[in-house]
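Entry:
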Amino acid sequence: MTQTSSRKNFVGFLFLILVIFAGGIFARYSSIDRVLAGIKEPFEVGEVLAQREIDDKTTVILCCNEKEPAKLQNIIIKRTGFLYHAVDKNGFLELEKPQALEQGKLRANMNISWYDEDNLSYVTMAVVYDEAVEQIYYGDKPMEKIEHEGYKIFLIYGEGEEQQYHLFGQDGNELTHQAE
């Protein structure tokens, strides 16, 4: 075998390895579902409760943790070209069905995820524990209400500084953060 033939075989072999490697990368990151399936401990994805497109390249997934289904988490996924990747994994809010609370108990719990380099883009999720809470506002914006199997979950995303959250009852009156 000549040196030129050996070099061609070696280059062909390297090209084949590169194609296999690129194919593996593409297969693993070619869809949101594949990215979710590849997420490891402690954020393994269980039941997906909601999926919202923030913009044409960013999606937020609200889901239960696979090993601890009573824990809510969010996964923020970005698309770059044809590939998707998780840019933030956050959460672990306890999922509980709303009920009448004793005095002093927390009515809701929130979690905010900052997912860009400037810490201006956010996803905020909340779980309501008090049956008296009907709506949550993040600053002056109402959060989207997601009811799932008796749970009250709220979600909002946007850009800007961190805001205070406000709880409102069925009568439209603002509630304190702790049951009275």
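Residues 32-175 form one domain.
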